[in-house]
Amino acid sequence: MMPAETRAVEFLRSVEHRVSRLPELGVTFREFVEDDRNFIINSYMHGYWATGISEPFRAGGFPVSLMDPEAYTVNQRAILLGLMASGVVIMACSAKDPWFVFGYLIGEVAEGAAVVHYVRVKKNYRQQGIAGALMGEMVTRAGNVCRVVFSHWAMPGGPVLVDWIKKRGLRPVWNPYLAR
After folding, report:
1. Helix H or strand E segment including 172
2. pTM > 0.90
3. Are 161 and 135 in contact (CB under 8 A)?
4. What is the pLDDT of residues 119-135, one digit of tens each?
5. For helices 4-25 and 130-142, what crossing angle results, to 10°?
6. CB atoms within 10 A of CB 18
7. Contact between 150 and 158 (Cβ < 8 Å)
8. Rounded CA gap, 104 and 101, in Å?
9. What radius of gyration, in Å, describes the C-alpha atoms of the chain?
10. Which residues on neighbouring strands pair with residue 29, listed in sequence order?
11. Can you tell me the distance from the alpha carbon of 80 to that of 134, in angstroms, rounded to the nearest whole number?
C-alpha cells in the first residue's frame, strides 16, 4: 500500500490527465450562479427519488412505497438547500456556452476529506468522464486528502464513483449523517 502522500500525488496526476481531455469534449467548470438553482433542485429531487431512494428498494432496501411523497419533497428539498448554502457547487458546462450544463457536484471540505454530497450528469453525457472530472476538481479543491466521503448514495453512479476513487488510491467512506 502506498503512503497517503504518494497516493494523493498519483491521484492528482490522473485527474490532470482526465481533465486535460475535457476541452476536447467541450467541457469546462464554473461556479454555481443563482440561475442554476431551479435546474439543480429539479434534477436532484427527481434523480435522488428515482435512483437514491427507489432503486435500493427494488434491491430489497428502503420501503419507498411507504414513504409519503410530500414528506420526501419538503424534507429532501430542505436538506439540498442547506447543502448548497453551506458547501460548494461545481458546474460542468460547455466551454462554448457556459449556460449549457452537463452536470454538477455538490460538496464541501470537512473532516479532513473531500465530501461529496451529490453528483449528477445528464443522461446523454454519462460515461464520458464528466462525473470523474467533477470528483477530481472537488478533491483538488480539498487539498491533500486520502479519503472521499459520500453523504448520498444513488444508483448506478455510486458504485462507479467508488471504483474510480479506489483506483486512485483514495479511501471512499459513506456517511449519510453529513447531509444536514
Report:
1. strand 171-174
2. no
3. yes
4. 999 988 888 889 989 98
5. 140
6. 16
7. yes
8. 8
9. 16
10. 92
11. 18
